[in-house]
Write a structure and sequence with these properties.
The complex is a heterotrimer. Chain A is mostly helical. Helix content of chain A is about 75%, strand content about 0%. By secondary structure, chain C is of the alpha+beta class. In chain C, α2 crosses α3 and α2 runs parallel beside α4. The chains are: A mainly alpha, B mainly alpha, C alpha+beta.
Chain lengths: ~280, ~290, ~325
């Protein structure tokens, strides 16, 4: 709104917005702060905010003792792997639906979406048994397969909405200019869709990184990503606040950064274009 | 642009996605359905036999089932109320000009990116723990007895934890919708003498109605499947106080190894989710035409 | 070279028949304009020639070679789109050289051709800009540049001027005509604007509902429109039609007389009427005369710019007898 706001009003809004923003963010901030405390300071009463002896000890302990790096790597492989494979399958599919729409295109899109609405618990048992019998339990491959499939509808949908915004004329111009289908996709469509593809990639890495139903149920140790690794801290013997905080901070930090970059695309990706 | 050439190329390029999703949907679904009619326990392999509707009878007469349904509804409803009301208020606040908009936006969105197991553990230990948690400290500071949240108000605590993660989602979507409201409409209403309250109720809220519906439907789909938060904090307990349908099916099949009854529960969960999905799909489908 | 022949070409979308069987021959070097109201199938026809749509049946040959089944890339045609369809992520230079890159030319040769085209089109100073930084007319020229570097058998234009403002449109019209004069390549041009058709074409194809109503040079169509539709579509302001008793005097169901073939006088003439709106353009005056005994529609008269007749005046109109067009009951021309 192009209207002058009184400074007093703006100051009031600023105060409340920051207060609520900090309140909502506080648990994350507290976790990060605690990760730099000693275990004793972490449960000290009264708790201290910044006036403690900052230490990196928890980080090194977590890294040394718990195979943290293995689980981190599992998270990376699983989320990036499933997203890249998903893109590879979804780009041609989205191309088809956006640029060669047929009578059934809409039905196919809606059907793909409907698979996303299937509650995971409804298919947990067969997947668990199939994985058990094929040796895919507790393997990265198994999780990559599952996460690719559960996020494929979102990837197709997001790409579809981005591709839809590219005028068909331009692709037809490429065809008239002598481009083959492959050249059309590589030289014209993909460069034009780079922002869309990038945000699809980012959002799906986030979703896969945080996925905590299949990762908890299909892994034990070897292939456990950070979601499952952190869950192991819930057992009583693992109750060390500072170390828990350090492990948590490392688990959420990369995704927080990515999330902040992709916040503009989030709405579109998560509402399937129903809110613009 | 539709030549035979491009049409056949299109069919070829869409088929991997369609075939994979078709397999992903049909194979496990039909297996779940099939198992739900079997007497099938993982501890007694080889003894599977046709059980008819026995699993459904067992599952549907299990008192835990009704607790689970009730808990599921409370969990979904509670989180929805908090996130929608809080989201509308927050969106209204953040839509106004103030200093540091970008940073506050980032702060508010952050919880959405925290993985469920982390948020559950942080809340459980560092905030709700009756001895060392921050809430206990605050209670003691004002002279109150510390409250053991997860023991005495387990479901409400889980609702709080889950709502914290979804509030950013609701806020972000409602804020986006609010920003798409034509400011001339509001100015016209102001010229017509509408007060802030009437502008909110007659113009902003109707404009937000669609976004609110989308938020409710999408969150419902995800909230029906809340799992990690429960597993990490209460393990469904005390008793069945925090067992929702998803957790019950998990416990039935992977803890008690009763695949038959677990599958029957899975079928019930699918039916429940489908009721919501139908409404959601209709809305998205309508938007696809526009 | 660019002789394009359509034989019994049809196109249906599902059950809807857009182009009924149609035959048309476009000679090498001709400037052919497809003109008609929106929805008449002219753009579809162009896309069939381009290969962006399949024909449902029939045959298209380009220079004697059957092109019916060829994909657009293999037909050796170039197209300029209504939206220009420039590649937004490429500079003007890369846009123009894209077809050459697809054809596998080496970079040096590409550059030479791009520079030459840019010189012709006055784009030399803009070669390193992106399309987004150009004005509408410049984008149009880039689109044309992209088409000419390929040295195609024929150019296809799909309403290329409709996104430009009026003054620029007149300029571009001239530029395209000049381009045709210098290249002498076949051009097929689609428009709904009969002025563009009249000013640019060697041959006009008037289309309605997928049918060819008439094919001919601009003046042929102007002088001898084959039916009421063509008569009404070609010429501006449009022809006046009178039916009933007055037409019967000419032994026709309907007669048509162009505004410029009516003489107007305050004192004497054949038809009497009252002036309604008069539009004084300076060079010309268009008078809309109500003569209710003849027709309910006002009769448009084109007169010289300085004429001293205004709203409400009683006037007399006299058609030039040899310029009266006669049509029968079916709307066909009687000669």
């Amino acid at each position: 709104m192009a209207r002058a706001v009184t400074p007093a009003h703006k100051a009031t809004v600023t105060f409340f917005a920051w207060a609520i923003g900090l309140l909502i963010f506080f648990p994350i901030l507290w976790t990060i702060l605690t990760s730099f405390k000693t275990e004793a300071e972490a449960i000290a009463s009264p708790p201290s905010f910044v006036g403690f002896d900052w230490t990196l000890e928890n980080y090194s302990t977590v890294m040394e003792r718990s195979n943290y790096f293995l689980h981190f790597l599992n998270s990376v492989v699983i989320s990036v792997g499933s997203t890249l494979i998903g893109l590879l399958i979804a780009i041609p599919a989205a191309w088809s639906m956006a640029f060669v729409p047929g009578k059934r295109t809409k039905d196919v899109l809606m059907w793909m979406l409907s698979t996303k609405m299937l509650p995971p618990v409804g298919v947990l048992i067969p997947i668990y048994l199939i994985f058990r019998d094929t040796g895919l339990l507790d393997t990265r491959t198994g999780l990559v397969i599952v996460l690719t499939l559960i996020n494929l509808p979102i990837i197709v949908w997001m790409l579809y909405t981005y591709f839809k915004e590219i005028p068909v004329d331009i692709l037809e111009a490429a065809r008239m200019d002598g481009a083959s289908l492959r050249a059309e996709i590589i030289y014209v469509l993909t460069p034009m869709a780079v922002p869309g593809i990038a945000s699809t990639l980012l959002l799906n890495i986030i979703l896969a990184w945080n996925e905590a139903f299949w990762t908890l149920n299909l892994t034990a140790a070897k292939a456990a990503p950070l979601t499952a690794f952190i869950a192991s801290y819930s057992s009583p013997e693992g109750l060390f606040y500072a170390k828990l905080s350090a492990a948590s901070t490392m688990a959420i930090a990369p995704i927080l950064v990515m999330g902040w970059f992709s916040q503009k695309q989030l709405v579109r990706g998560l509402t399937f274009g129903a809110v613009k | 642009m539709a030549t035979q050439h491009s049409k056949s190329a299109a069919r070829f390029m869409i088929s991997p996605a369609v075939l994979l999703l078709l397999g992903w949907m049909l194979i496990p679904l039909s297996l779940t359905l099939y198992f739900s009619f079997l007497r099938y326990n993982l501890l007694m392999p080889g003894t599977e036999e046709w059980a008819g509707l026995l699993n459904y009878r067992f599952f549907l007469t299990d008192p835990a089932f009704f607790d689970a349904i009730w808990n599921t509804l409370l969990l979904v409803g509670g989180v929805l109320v908090i996130t929608v009301v809080g989201g509308v208020l927050l969106a209204l606040l953040l839509d106004q000009p103030f200093w540091g908009q970008g940073i506050v936006r980032i702060l508010v969105i952050a919880p959405f990116f925290v993985m469920p197991t982390v948020s559950a553990l942080v809340w459980k230990n560092m905030f709700m723990n009756p001895v060392n948690g921050l809430f206990a400290f605050l209670a003691k500071a004002v002279g109150l007895e510390p409250f053991d949240f997860l023991a005495h108000a387990p479901l409400s605590s889980i609702i709080l934890i889950v709502a914290w993660g979804w509030l950013p989602f609701a806020t972000l979507i409602l804020l986006t919708a609010l920003q798409s409201l034509d400011s001339e409409q509001l100015e016209a209403a102001e010229m017509d003498g509408a007060s802030w309250m009437s502008r909110f109720f007659y113009i902003m809220l109707p404009h937000l109605a669609r976004a609110i519906t989308v938020v409710i439907l999408i969150q419902t789909i995800f909230l029906l499947s809340v799992f990690a938060e429960i597993l990490v904090t209460t393990n469904g307990g005390p008793g069945t106080a925090t067992t929702n349908l998803t957790f019950l099916v998990y416990a039935q099949s992977l803890l008690q190894f009763d695949v038959g009854a677990g599958s029957a529960g899975g079928v019930v969960a699918i039916i429940l989710a489908n009721i919501v999905a139908i409404f959601l799909m209709r809305m998205i489908g309508k938007n696809l035409d526009a | 070279m660019g002789r394009i022949v359509l034989e019994k070409v049809t196109k249906s979308f599902g059950d809807v028949n857009v182009i009924p069987p149609l035959d048309l021959a476009i000679e090498d070097g001709e400037f052919v304009v497809f003109v008609g109201p929106s929805g008449c199938g002219k753009s579809t026809l162009l896309r069939l020639i381009a290969g962006l749509e399949d024909v449902t049946s029939g045959r298209i040959t380009i220079d004697g070679r059957d092109a019916t089944e060829l994909p657009p890339a293999k037909r050796g045609l170039a197209m300029v789109f209504q939206s220009y369809a420039l590649y937004p992520h490429m500079s003007v230079r890369k846009n123009i050289s894209f077809p050459l890159k697809m054809a596998g030319l080496d970079p040096a040769e590409r550059n030479k051709r791009v520079e030459a085209a840019a010189k012709v089109l006055n784009l030399t100073d803009y070669l390193d800009r992106r399309p987004g930084q150009l004005s509408g007319g410049q984008r149009q020229r880039v689109a044309i540049g992209r088409a000419i570097v390929r040295e195609p058998a024929a150019f296809l234009f799909d309403e290329p001027l409709s996104n430009l403002d009026a003054a620029l449109r007149v300029n571009m019209r001239l530029e395209i005509s000049e381009l045709h004069n210098s290249l002498e390549t076949t051009m097929i041009y689609v428009t709904h604007d009969q002025v563009e058709a009249m000013t640019m074409a060697d041959k006009i194809v008037v289309l309605r509902a997928g049918h060819i109503e008439q094919v001919g040079s601009p003046l042929e169509l102007y002088r001898n429109p084959r039916n009421l539709f063509v008569a009404g579509f070609i010429g501006s302001p449009r022809m006046n039609f009178i039916s009933g008793a007055e037409a019967a005097k000419h032994e026709a169901a309907t007669i048509g007389i162009r505004p410029e073939h009516l003489a107007i006088s305050k004192t004497e003439g054949i038809w009497k009427g009252t002036v309604g709106v008069s539009e004084h353009l300076g060079s010309d005056t268009f008078l809309h005369v109500h003569a209710r005994e003849l027709t309910q529609e006002p009769i448009t008269v084109r007169s010289d710019g300085e004429i001293d007749i205004y709203h409400g005046d009683t006037v007399f109109l006299s058609p030039q007898e040899d310029k009266v067009h006669r049509f029968n009951q079916e709307g066909l021309r009687l000669s």
